[in-house]
Amino acid sequence: MTTLSNEEKLTIVNSKLKNLNYNKFSLEIDKVSENAKASPDSNTISRLNLLISEADRQIVALTTEAALYTPEEA
User: Fold this and answer.
1) CB count, 10 Å around CB of 51?
2) 36: Cα separation from own chain's centroid
3) Domain total for the chain?
4) pTM (predicted TM-score)
5) pLDDT, tens only, 4-41
6) Rounded distance, CA 40 to CA 29, Å?
């Protein structure tokens, strides 16, 4: 059985963080777009706000997790 090194674990966590940040930014752009409509849908804006908050919580959790994986010394 192969065990992942701390550097490999950190790479995986950082990749997940990058994806979460991309998704959060996309949600923020969706919100800007919705607010630009003549009649923005308040339900859509509420849902986007919820999804942005969830992304923020996940980012905090993974940032905390990333701190656990210090690359090994060579």
Assistant:
1) 17
2) 24
3) 1
4) 0.88
5) 999 999 999 999 999 999 999 999 999 999 999 999 99
6) 14
